[in-house]
Amino acid sequence: MMDWLHFGVFTLIIFVFVITGVLFFIWYERRGLGRLQLRPGPNRAGPFGLLQPLADAVKVLLKEDIVPALADKPVHFLAPMVAFVPALAVFAVVPFGDGAMLADLNIGILYIMAVSSVVVIGIFMAGWSSSNKYSLLGAMRTIAQEVSYEIPLVLSILGAVMLAGSLSLNDIVKAQNVPFALLQPLGFLIYMTAAMAEINRTPFDLLEADSEIIAGFQTEYSGMKFGLFYLTEYAETLSVSVIASTLFLGGWAGPVLPGILWLVIKVVAVFSFIMWVRATFPRLRIDQVMAFCWKFLLPLAILNLLLTAGLVLTGLNDQLWLAVPLNLGLAAVLVVLASRQFRTGGGHAVT
């Protein structure tokens, strides 16, 4: 009985957390981008435009659902749900406090990597079933990009796992006497870069590059099914922010304030960085994105893993007064050296 009560309560908490977080992110990003681009942003629906995401949701739900005549209709219908459910399921192992989670799996990291990789199947189903060359091109770009960036992403997470000695997210938070971002600055940088490519955020948003392929895999979607893809995009952004906060910024741990409040503050800080990147950097070309992964990010991820293994074996990671400045210095030197060796083949980024 208690197990079912625990399951029901935390399922409801996760659902409310994700929906509220997505609505807040949509409003915060549109408002923030407006400020960064010297314009007001949404300011008509409710105070400070707070009701604009709800108005947009109602508009999307009331729109007609149009399906192309040559589309594979069952696959076209299932694709948004195949993409959305895994994006929601990731939160099952995220701790909102000490032990406050739906399931404290001792393979929590493996669970997240396995479940989150299913989202790309939904995107491919959408691109293939739409019978549209722009949709298929967007889907194929997604597969190439996500398979490539999965490798440095996993290697960056392994650094935090080695320091904590556990795959459980709750144990990783407890192991952080100082945030792992200080002991793993290079790993944190690699994680944020690879994760933004995984969820197709600017400057890696090639799968829906509207100036090239209209809207990519979403071109033939409308109404509620388009709304589910939109929800998936922001749910993935929320999950990336939550996982970054948990693995590298101490998660729920912090003085004075309740744990959930510390987690929310760190999540908003990570999302603010993602929003700033979107407002600052132009979209890269597909060859630049792939070269950046294989020639720059992957070698750095391997070096970071080897350095972390050396720190753990020698016990230097316990000497914080030495390990923190040593890691920060090594990260700066490696980034500078790697950037001098990296060439994209010329050309300009897509604006």
TrEMBL record:
Catalytic activity: a quinone + NADH + 5 H(+)(in) = a quinol + NAD(+) + 4 H(+)(out)
Membrane topology: Multi-pass membrane protein
Keywords, sorted A to Z: Cell membrane, Membrane, NAD, Oxidoreductase, Quinone, Translocase, Transmembrane, Transmembrane helix, Ubiquinone
GO biological process, one term: aerobic respiration
Subcellular location, record wording: Cell membrane; Membrane
Molecular-function annotations in GO: NADH dehydrogenase activity; oxidoreductase activity, acting on NAD(P)H, quinone or similar compound as acceptor; quinone binding
Name the record gives this protein: NADH-quinone oxidoreductase subunit H
Record organism: Dehalogenimonas sp. 4OHTPN
